[in-house]
Amino acid sequence: MSAVTRSATRTPATGLGVQGLPRIARGEGSYLYDTAGKRYLDGSGGPAVYAIGHAHPAVNAAIGRQLEDVAHGYRYFFTSDALESLSARIVANCENHFPHMVFVCSGSEAVESALKIALQYHDARGDTSRRRFIARERSYHGNTLGSLSVSGFEQRRAPFEGALLEVDFVSPANAYRPPPDARGGDLGTWLRDELENRILEIGPERVAAFIFEPVVGAAGGVVPPPPGYAAAMRDVCDRYGVLMIADEVMCGAGRCGTWRALEFDGVVPDIMTLAKSLAAGYLPLGATLYSSRVHAGILERYPEVQTGHTFTAHTACCAAGDAVQKIVADEGLVERVLRVGETFKASLRSELEAVDAVGDVRGRGFLVGVELVADRDRKTPFPRERGLSADIARRAFDSGLVCYPCSGHVDGAGDTIILAPPFNSSQRELDAIVDMLKGAILSALG
Ligand SMILES: Cc1ncc(COP(=O)(O)O)c(C=O)c1O
């Protein structure tokens, strides 16, 4: 098939409702260029991935060197400098809480491994009835059968219902839209009690782990939890021998202004996942980290953790992750995200204050959501058929801004625009993101 035929017959689902996508030519820093020469400011780092911008010469050089030496040393035959250096950086960034890890090639695989490590831990300790996971509604953990099973994301689950794992779901920790029964009281306490009651209903001896996103990404339209939430959930998990899995695929590796997102909440999970910002899109890389306690539990019965794939710890992917994390550390980018993230959010709030349809601007660090509502006081969403977030993202894209539309998080309706710029975006670029997004919102609202 010729290239022309291929592109003419392609009608991809983009989330933007665009049929003919522009053809990517190159990237440079916070910008992308298509083959027609149009420039796009990357306001969302694609899907919250490109943490240090595009075509960074030091990362490309590190990958090039690795490829020239050897692309891949299979994990059961060789270790490598890239693998060991990246592992050491991660151990240090997590303050030694996670000396054990397995590298994979995506966030879904990282979650899949996290679920399996939790199951293997309980099995090894003779807790063989602990096979059940508790997850949260309005969450996304991936697209493999296991990771999709623990995702509270109706649209993505629908075609596979009946074949997914049996999973229990509790409420999201959304202070802007608390569960109806929780209104008026302390949300954190209500959610803690809900988790505890659910564990008791199922039977603690049957629950393997609780999995959650410390800051929800696309499934909820960026939702940071209320203060004290993660610590309260940790307490409940500890009381009933339930492992805590923090899915930091989107919010981790510095995106929220601390290297681990949960560091901000003062909580250490038993198992955690990473992906997007780890190698920042230069090559596919995810990781599942686990504590010494989990590792020792597994070794009570098994010689090793039984997870991983052919491309686990792929050498060139680890070299990419190592080079990205070296830049993040050398340039103090995580601290910058924490500091500048507050001013970025404040400037979005003040610029969008006068736009009635902007109901909430929330987030942590460089993971920010702008939720649109038809009625600000009642927080009524726009009708689903209006497709407002997709409309805004399309207009932004046309004007040269990449942002990430997200919908369906309010009973099937709901519109939020996600911004997740590169950690090293300049102040001028951040200001331009705010201006261009405001323009796109006003244009869509007519
Ligand atoms: C929190 C979270 N977990 C898991 C995944 C799945 O990652 P991947 O798409 O790399 O498989 C995503 C993807 O967006 C995510 O946001």
Name the overall outline.
Answer: globular
**CATH domain class of the largest domain:** Alpha Beta
* Cα end-to-end separation: 43 Å
Report Rg.
22 Å
Sheet with most strands = 7 strands, mixed
Residue runs with pLDDT of under 50 for 5 or more positions = 1-18
Counted up, domains total: 2
Strand content: 15-25%
Got a strand count? 15
**CATH fourth-tier homologous superfamily of the largest domain:** Type I PLP-dependent aspartate aminotransferase-like (Major domain)
Helix-and-strand structural type: alpha/beta
- By CATH, the architecture of the largest domain is named 3-Layer(aba) Sandwich
Q: What would you say this structure looks like, in words?
A:
This protein is of the alpha/beta class. The protein has 2 domains: 3-55 and 332-445, Aspartate Aminotransferase, domain 1 (Alpha-Beta Complex), CATH 3.90.1150.10; 60-330, Aspartate Aminotransferase, domain 2. Helix content is 38%, strand content 17%. The chain is built from 15 helices and 15 strands. It has helices at 3-9, 45-48, 57-69, 81-93, 107-124, 145-149, 154-157, 187-202, 229-239, 276-279, 292-299, 315-330, 333-352, 388-398, 427-445; strands at residues 24-28, 31-34, 39-42, 100-104, 132-136, 167-170, 207-212, 243-247, 271-274, 286-290, 358-364, 367-372, 401-402, 404-410, 413-419. The two termini are 43 Å apart. The structure holds pyridoxal-5'-phosphate (PLP). Pyridoxal-5'-phosphate (PLP) binds at residues 47, 106-108, 111, 140-143, 213, 217-218, 247, 249-250, 275.
